[in-house]
Here is the input.
Amino acid sequence: MAGGSREPGRTVTSKVLSILAAFEQSRGALSLTDIAEKSGLPLSTAHRLVNELTDWGFLSREPNGRYQLGIRLWELAQNTGRQLRDAARPYVQDLFSLTGETAHLAVRTGHEVLYIDRVYGSKRVPRASRVGGRLPMHATAVGKVILAFEEDWVRDAYLNRQLERHTAHTHVDPKKLAAELTQIREQGYATTLEEVRLGSCSIAVPVFHTGRIGASIGLVLPTNQAATMTRHLPVLRGIAAQIERATARIPLETLLGSHVAGTD
Amino acid sequence: MAGGSREPGRTVTSKVLSILAAFEQSRGALSLTDIAEKSGLPLSTAHRLVNELTDWGFLSREPNGRYQLGIRLWELAQNTGRQLRDAARPYVQDLFSLTGETAHLAVRTGHEVLYIDRVYGSKRVPRASRVGGRLPMHATAVGKVILAFEEDWVRDAYLNRQLERHTAHTHVDPKKLAAELTQIREQGYATTLEEVRLGSCSIAVPVFHTGRIGASIGLVLPTNQAATMTRHLPVLRGIAAQIERATARIPLETLLGSHVAGTD
DNA sequence: GGCTGGCTTCCACTGAGCGGAAACCAGTTA
DNA sequence: TAACTGGTTTCCGCTCAGTGGAAGCCAGCC
Here is the structure.
């Protein structure tokens, strides 16, 4: 063995993928050294693989020498989850047009909500979520709704973990949260008040598919509108019903792949 | 050599990437055999690599055994081109709200236009474009606009190729096309009439950044509205100006990576 | 002109990858 | 029930692609 830090048993594939995964942690472009560090690879190895990824268009090199995810990757990934996003998009837009507030479409992956789509106006609201981003379920309205209507074992498994606290207002007591979820199931919607980020509150309703909870749509508003949030409920419910109708024919598994399955 | 069909010199990386690339050609899920075929790999090799990709969440396996691009890839890719898309999104939405027609945001990659964003209503129009999809520049309004305002050498290089014909109305004569581009540059907008697909026409205007053509926004309409298309010009120009203002501060290269550079 | 931090190239050793073959596993037909 | 079919999974010994330390390179800075 040449030097000592060889790490046998590591597949080439895992090295390539960990290079791509390096871009998950940080926005923006990375230098070769950054990539090598984040992916835990020797510099020369990283160099060789990064070059090959660049040739294939999966990474792109900026004029300043740093690397960024290539546009080919983006093109490729547009195919994922297209069914649900494409079908729901016009309705999420309507939701925004009718309320004037930032509108979200989210599903569950494991223990988190994944934001599938997001429609907002040019007057920007401070945002915690972003398309393709995740947040914990117990701190968001869309998350709570999904959790509330999920099967028992999913909910139990979720509550059986340490619940992360984002602000002073995040509900992290499992007992109280369980009670809240019951109430959400009864009233058919969930709200949050500064539980992810100070200054904003949110309200969400479920979107069902073949009898099961499939997704959730919600609005995020500035805190000062918290008291009157529920006035948006009729619109939310109307739009949810439309999305349910529009997606009813598409089999659940092709809507978003089979990602909704795993609990982690 | 074991059997004979070993293909020496092929890197593992290229094999992994060609598996991902297999999903570019076809929508929908692929069986292992499909993947092996499309990527030109022996079945057992494909099997091993596909498994590893699945473990990493870059592919996902549906209940029926077929494979689909994993959601992790989608999450990852959301970071690409985020700047332009995020900044422009609200305005593209406005464009749709104000006109009621399918609105597009597109940029150039190589010899094609790449659709970055797309806003449309629930009354679906037959569509040739899709987000993440490409079309030739000479057959689309957004493409013609970009080509018209590009630097000379880009335009010359483009016209110097065999121009693909999509319908009987596609303009494929280089001379005539060059004249058309000159006119587009003078009048500040481009139109098409059934040049990609029968039944639809389109109109587009340029979006500049630091003096150069950066992107284009456009509308697609049913052919019967072709005669009155230009009534949307004021809105198109207004929205373009707003996008220019919103993106002016962001350096061009971070807007979409450095993909705009290459001519292939 | 020497230093520093990052990128690129080189090359001989070696274990990860290879892929043909055979087993396996539904469906489906005889 | 058995044979067939089309796809998936497992196995294993050979071998060459991958490896990564080291040295060279380059640009900017003190």
